[in-house]
Amino acid sequence: MFGSRVLGLVAAAGSVFAQTTVYEAESGALNGVTVGTSVTGFTGKGYVEGFDTATDSITFNISSMTSQLYNLSIVYNGPNGDKYTTVVLNGVGGSQISLPATTTWTTVPAGQVLLNAGANTIQIQNNWGWYLIDAIKVTPAAKRGAHKVTTTPINKNANSDAKALLKYLGSIYGKKMLSGQHDQTSLDWVTQNVGKTPAVLGVDFMDYTESRKSRGASSTDTDKAIAFAKKGGIVTFQWHWGAPVGLYDTAEHPWYKGFYTDATDFNIETALKDTTNANYTLLIKDIDTIAVELKKLQSAGVPVIWRPLHEAEGAWFWWGAKGPEPAKKLWNILYDRLTNHHKLNNLIWQWNSVAAAWYPGNAKVDMVSADTYSQGDHGPISATYNNLLALTNDTKIIAAAEIGSVMEPDQLKAYQADWVYFAVWSGEYISGGSWNSLDLLKRVYASDYVLTLDEIQGWKKTKTARSWEA
Ligand SMILES: *[C@@H]1O[C@H](CO)[C@@H](O)[C@H](O)[C@H]1NC(C)=O
Ligand SMILES: *[C@@H]1O[C@H](CO)[C@@H](O)[C@H](O)[C@H]1NC(C)=O
Ligand SMILES: *[C@@H]1O[C@H](CO)[C@@H](O)[C@H](O)[C@H]1NC(C)=O
Ligand SMILES: *[C@@H]1O[C@H](CO)[C@@H](O)[C@H](O)[C@H]1NC(C)=O
Fold first, then answer.
1. Closest protein CA for atom 14 of ligand 2
2. GH26 domain spans which residues (predicted)?
3. I need a surface site. Which of 75, 302, 337, 460 has the fewest CB within 10 A?
4. pTM of the model
């Protein structure tokens, strides 16, 4: 292969040999960029620089003997600070890769690429620009071994409903995926238009929150969840938790956006400093209000995939606004209050941030998940999946808790992105046509890989759950 160089044989699991191939940047097709040699330490004849315009790119021709999954990495130098690049495979989609500041030639993982048999292209596109590219490397990805996930809840007193749910999820994990939809109205839209009912309903404790109820909000999501569970479905709750006090309540930042960091001056760090201040007390009061709802679910025999403090690492919600430590502290307070004080034993505790600094730890979490929105991209979100896999050392089941565009089942299987369920966000995301076409939704819902409500009937009974086990 022109412009490539074989690095040698690297032993991989199962005595398969993975051969890494290096493609020198200066040998790619250069568009708007040039070859430099002044920063020493590069390999080959130089490196590529001058990424300063949106259309600047390097295109590599890559051939593969078979259709196969490869690990991709980029060798770069970042003397101008933290930057991003975009990697595009065969001209479609594109994933953003972080290139942290460095003044030495550094290799960063850039996700995985499913190459076709024969010719392929990998393109490095400008994005933020102002970095130097020396080479890219592709290595055939080793097939991952069996998952090592725990299917025993962290709560020693978990009831039989919660235990059955986690066990059921474990039994399908890596073999099947549950379809899911947020919001009852959107779920009904799926039933009516796609012709299948999702297995998972996503609902919200948002309008049971004190600061919203006192301003006229109300909700029936608890009743909807119980009704859906009676039909044999699985429910997951998040909580858009409006801050208890400090809402700006202005035209620009209305009270109903009070879960957003920029709509309140509520300070989680100060509130959690001690257990006697007024704001700590208000947080506990809010948790107690939600406990009332969770108890109704527990009494009705409904286990809940419980996803509080979602997207904490994004910092756009007040619970993530002061960094990882207060968020993790609040997670522990929530767990203690709901489990030990309120004796709620029907909960599967699902964490929803990916970064290691935010992770409450394997002893505090039953499942992990991420929310990703990439309009019209029906890829497997495998880089995020692999980050979550690494986060827990593959000890926790992983879910795509909120997505915009559904994933292609074939891609999920090829990339071994074993999300146990997906849950599309409500409204235009599912029914607007631009995030998901109706044809694609029909194909995804009809896939053998994707389970719908009719296909999971009786999941609580061990016997049925076992039918998926290897
Ligand atoms: C890549 O392949 C295309 C199509 O065969 C060819 O036109 C182009 O010159 C190749 N680019 C490089 C850098 O080899
Ligand atoms: C490829 O990437 C995956 C996911 O990040 C990783 O687990 C694996 O060890 C890497 N290497 C090979 C040879 O598969
Ligand atoms: C509680 O939070 C509100 C809103 O941010 C703030 O004005 C008030 O000073 C806080 N109270 C205490 C005791 O920290
Ligand atoms: C995963 O394993 C690594 C290495 O053994 C360890 O450092 C890390 O703490 C583990 N992560 C978790 C979440 O237990």
1. 141
2. 160-454
3. 337
4. 0.87
